[in-house]
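[Automated response] Your request has been received and processed.

Submitted sequence:
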Amino acid sequence: MSDSTEQKDHDTVVNATSDAESLPSVKARRPNRAAIVVVVAMFAIAATGIIGWILLRSRSGGAGQPVPTPRSVSAEQSPSPNTAEPTVTVAPEVIQRAGIKIELVGEQPSTETSTSASTTGIVQANAYRATPVVSLVGGIVRRVNAELGQSVARGQTMAVVFSDELAQAQSRYLTAQAELEEHHKHHVRTIRLAEIGAASKEELEQATTKLKSAESEVASQRQRLLLLGLSSQRISSLRSSAQVSSEVSLPAPVSGTVIARSANPGEVIQADKEILKVANLSSVWVIGQVYEKDLGRIRVGSGASITTEAYPGRVFRGQVSYVDPTLDPATRTAQVRIELANPSQILKIGMYVNVAFATLGGAESTVPVVPSNAVQNINNQQVVFVATSNANVFAMRPVRLGPETNGLFPVLEGLTVGERVVTEGSFLLRAEWLKLHPNQ
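Generated structure:
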């Protein structure tokens, strides 16, 4: 019994010893499991953050997210494809409602060129292209078919005159024709008689002379009718006194514009009376008085710039075509004539204009100008809004301007002649720009 008891005690000691030896290995494995748990937790947290970020971004750009109502006017600081200038975009209906208007940048002579001569002048018709409508017969004016300023074509009937002189000229023509026919018959008979010896050579010569005289008289009377205004067709068809007419039509000698009218229906006129005057106004003259001290700067063929208050910001270019060799002793001036094109006949006869002559060997200097209502002020900077190739987009451009004169600003920097700028409605574009950029 004691032996069995001792055996149990020995087994108990052995088991306790073996458990004691195995305990350090168990404690060694526990730290490894904790590290795995920590790593797994960190990965889970990172994955959760990534998934949340993806979902948030997809919601901000996807359907179902509330978006603000689009504006009809928006401003962009980013440069447009063709320019680095800031732009303002306007919807078409806003442009129409606001009455936005666009005008071209004009030009005017520069005030910095004090060496060039200048004067004032008066627009006149080009005398080389003005032709009067004259009645070569006296009589009574029946009709005048043209008004002042009316455009007419060459050959168009301008007036009709009732003339007894014309009727008498036609009667003389008919008489000459009858005599020519009679002399022609007599000449033919004389030739036949001379062939059979029934008429002498002298009689034949007399008949021939009378025939030639009759032919000359008919030709003279025909030319007279042509000068009086009858057409060749009308003269050729004149065969009897029943066809004689007392009315002569006066055609337009050239195509152009009626610039003068000096007769009315019912008026009695004399021969060679001017009824109307027609001028081709595609080019005009400007006559200016140049002081003696400035004549040395002007030559025939040199350039000149014409401006007028009727068309501010526009310059018409011409050439000096005549310098009067005689001075006016009272004013010490000489007349200078400038010939220039007159597009659409916008320069009117009698209009006062300003003339700036080019310097010898040079050209007259001009500067761009813009209307005052095209200029706006943003943060103490003068700007204009320039139209782009897109009808709804306008570029905001800073400019440097000179002093205002007659509602126009000379542009020293920022614009060139011919560019398109907003005039009426530019304040709306300024207001929208400031509304969208309150801190600028």
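Summary generated for your ticket: The first strand starts at residue 73 and ends at 76. Residues 372 and 405 are 9 Å apart (CA to CA).
If you did not submit this request, please reply to this message.
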